[in-house]
Design brief:
The protein has 767 residues and is mainly alpha-helical. It is 50% helix and 6% strand. Helix 4 runs antiparallel to helix 6, helix 13 runs antiparallel to helix 36 and helix 15 runs antiparallel to helix 34. It is elongated. Keywords: Membrane, Transmembrane, Transmembrane helix.
Length: 767
């Protein structure tokens, strides 16, 4: 069945994207063309979804296959060549330029016919859908990738998804197609940039259409072989096409220069294109508003995505359970990862040897590190001098440091007040600090310290004063006590002086009295007994009794309350250059210092072996580290297990909207032209192509390097082995019911610019 969809016509009812829209006349009737005239074979609606399996290389092949298929499709019809041919063969057709401009500026689709209803999307709609299309297809691919990561069918799926994310997303951007379903109809509205034009025939079910054409049971490859296309070399087809128009030996840069596009600045071209399609130069925030998400909370969007992935307000543990990880031991999970990476279960030292670190020494690593940054021959003093700190004194450094922190001029009382502890009772503070130890008695603490059985005599023996004369002690203290007499001592204690002998020196009177004779029986008493009632007091009671004051009062009594933090720190710090504090280390090069501190011949493996760690296997190490702890236990211990995904997202992102987030990053107020200028500056299209390596290779060489000897059928791979019915069934459209209507044309953005637009303009000029 052919689709003669080239009339750009009359009033009617249009199917635009996903809805029926009432429209008025958009294009003059002079542009009408008979419906029966065939223009292009109907393109099959292809949903080139990303195939997510544990295959690490299939997506790369899919990328090249899909790209080749679409490039072939683009090459079968040279739209702009047709336009030039039309102009040269019939110059008078240029008189229809007003009709061309009217057609190009029309927003609504054109409608013709009634049975079937013929609908053609306007250029503006086609371009707009082409711009949005890659965003939709890439989003679909991203959701598939995330689904594979978080809902794997086997343990390797997440790794495969991460490894193949780039080709999958690139394939979606270039070749993907995302349909929208309206009353049972699947419309290929959103396409990758290379997807060629697709016309939708709504006349019967897809399987009926395929069977009516007699191709339902034929494979895609056999159909291509029957037409002679399947055996054609892709490179030969493309180079032949290029040679036929004299472009084969030109580089891509030569082509754009010949078209007068090479010297155009990329930023200006993009701005012009956006203006031409009616987008203009909005800010990023305005674009978000156009899309209806500017005032939507970022958290809500993230929650919608997680809900779409099937994680509807579930807990973290629920997710772990859904993907089969909740009851898995962390040690087993670690081993699974090691096995998947091909590491297995070596010892720590065997693993180091396998990665080539068996002979590494700690000394060598440190020497390599300091040499790599050019510090091996530098001393610590040199490094301080290079930073400007070497000549700075300790007092200057501390003063500037505390001043920068806003603490230098604050008094100790200010700091305690700020901390809310200036009025705290010392006894209470001590009780808090000591905890349960505060309830122990002084005697018990002395016992803990080993003084429980120590006698007074043991102490006097240790000090060597047991047999020392008391008179000798008083004589040695005469420079403090003076020449005290017996009466002086009696008067001081409130006793009656002696009439005789009272004037004798106290040191002389006690010359024959030793410490032992003075203490008498107390010499053999335990030291603890000398404490009296104080020995039975707890530490808390002792501190409360002797320090019944606040911390602030203690500071005031000690004279430190008005002392600044800077004064306190500097009081015990010498005022010397910082480099002088390093001593000998300051003048020793770092490499020599490393040699002094770290043995040069001791390998890391030797160190690990000596510590007993080197001979442990990875499984033993994981088991010792995590024991029997499961993923669920670890999540619970971290306080994450019972958290719901929605709550985590809202806590992380808050109430911030999309535009607020963009404004925070400084992007919201930037216009499209601002972004283009920032990304591309004044670089031209030719500059960008040269930067991509397209300035030296000819088009033929480029195509040969891409496709080699591959044929069209070989590029299709497994896709080509499917029958049309199987393909339709796999796409879910085999039994799709359609009305008797034809809608066209749906394009990828690049395909439209390079092919479709030229053909449409040609059709208008040809009348």
């Amino acid at each position: 069945m052919q689709l003669a969809l080239r009339p750009y016509v009359t009033p009617g009812v249009a199917i635009a994207g996903a809805a029926l829209i009432a429209v008025t006349g958009a294009v003059p009737a002079a542009v009408l063309r008979p419906h029966a005239e065939p223009q292009r074979a109907l393109q099959l609606i292809q949903d080139q979804g990303v195939k997510l399996t544990a295959d690490f290389f299939g997506p790369w092949q899919d990328l090249f296959n899909n790209t080749a298929t679409n490039l072939v499709a683009m090459g079968t019809d040279n739209g702009w060549g047709n336009l030039l041919e039309q102009i040269f063969s019939d110059p008078s057709s240029l008189t229809r330029l007003p009709e061309v401009f009217e057609f190009l500026t029309s927003i609504m689709p054109s409608i013709s016919g009634s049975d079937p209803l013929m609908v053609l999307l306007s250029p503006i709609l086609t371009i707009g859908m082409g711009v949005i299309g890659p965003l939709v297809t890439v989003n679909d691919a991203m959701q598939d990738i995330l689904n594979q990561i978080f809902n794997p069918s086997d343990p390797l799926d997440p790794f495969a998804a991460l490894f193949t994310a780039v080709p999958q997303l690139l394939d979606a951007w270039l070749n993907g197609t995302s349909t929208i379903d309206v009353v049972g109809l699947s419309i290929p509205a959103f396409n990758g940039i290379l997807v060629p034009d697709q016309n939708l025939i709504i006349d019967e079910t897809a399987s009926e259409w395929a069977n009516n054409l007699g191709i339902g049971d034929q494979t895609i490859a056999s159909l291509l072989d029957q037409t002679g296309i399947g055996t054609l070399q892709v490179a030969g087809m493309l180079t032949g096409l290029l040679d036929s128009v004299g472009l084969g030996d030109d580089t891509p840069v030569d082509v754009v220069n010949a078209l007068g596009l090479g010297n155009l600045e990329v930023a200006n071209v993009l701005s012009t294109v956006f203006n031409a399609v009616g987008i203009g130069n909005p800010t990023i925030a305005e674009i978000m508003d156009m899309l209806g998400i500017g005032n939507v909370a970022v958290a809500d969007i993230a929650i919608d995505i997680t809900n779409a992935l099937g994680f509807e307000n579930t807990t973290v543990i629920d997710i772990a359970d859904d993907i089969g990880l909740a009851d898995l031991k962390l040690a087993d999970l670690g081993m699974d990862v090691l096995e998947a990476m091909g590491i297995g279960d070596p010892t720590v030292n065997e693993l180091l040897t396998d990665i080539g670190a068996g002979s590494l020494t700690l000394n060598g690593l440190l020497q390599t590190a300091v040499d790599a940054v050019g510090l091996g021959g530098q001393t610590a003093a040199d490094i301080l001098d290079a930073t400007g700190l070497g000549a700075q004194t300790t007092h200057e450094f501390v003063t500037e440091l505390l001043g920068g922190l806003g603490l230098g001029n604050q008094t100790i009382m200010d700091l305690l007040s700020s901390a809310g502890i200036a009025d705290a009772d010392i006894g209470q503070l001590a009780s808090v600090v000591l905890g349960s130890y505060g309830d122990d008695t002084v005697a018990e603490i002395m016992g803990y310290a080993g003084f429980g059985t120590v006698t007074v005599g043991n102490i006097t023996d240790l000090l060597g004063i047991t047999n020392l004369s008391v008179g000798t002690i008083l004589g040695n203290l005469s420079y403090i006590t003076g020449n005290l007499t017996v009466n002086d001592m009696l008067k001081a204690t409130g006793m009656t002086p002696l009439d005789k002998g009272g004037d004798a020196l106290l040191s002389t009177s006690l010359a024959g009295t030793t410490i032992a004779s003075f203490l008498g029986d107390q010499l053999n008493a335990p030291l603890v007994s000398m404490l009296g009632p104080m020995g039975e007091m707890s530490l808390n009671e002792l501190i409360s009794t002797n320090f019944s004051m606040t911390l602030g009062q203690m500071l005031e009594q000690s004279g430190m309350a008005d002392q600044t933090l800077t004064d306190l720190v500097l009081a015990g710090l010498p005022d010397a250059p910082l480099s002088s504090l390093l001593g000998v280390m300051g003048s020793t090069p770092l490499s020599a210092l490393i040699d002094q501190l770290v043995p040069a011949d001791q390998t890391i493996i030797d160190m690990l072996a000596a510590s007993g760690l080197g001979n442990q296997t990875m499984s033993e190490l994981l088991t010792q580290t995590f024991g029997d702890q499961t993923v669920a236990n670890a999540l619970d211990d971290g306080g994450l297990g019972s958290l719901q995904i929605d709550d985590i997202i809202r806590q992380a992102l808050g109430p911030q909207t999309v535009n607020e987030m963009l404004n925070d990053f400084g992007l919201g107020g930037q216009s499209l032209s601002d972004l283009f200028d920032q990304f591309f500056g004044v670089s031209t299209i030719a500059d960008q192509m040269i930067a991509l390596g397209l300035g030296d290779q000819t088009l033929n060489e480029l195509i040969d390097s891409l496709f080699g000897a591959s044929t069209v059928s070989s590029l299709l791979g497994d896709f080509g082995l499917q029958t049309v019915d199987e393909l339709l069934t796999s796409m879910g459209i085999a039994d799709m019911t359609v009305i008797n209507a034809q809608i066209g044309e749906f394009w990828g953005s690049m395909s439209y610019w390079l092919d479709g637009l030229g053909d449409q303009i040609t059709a208008v000029l040809s009348g």
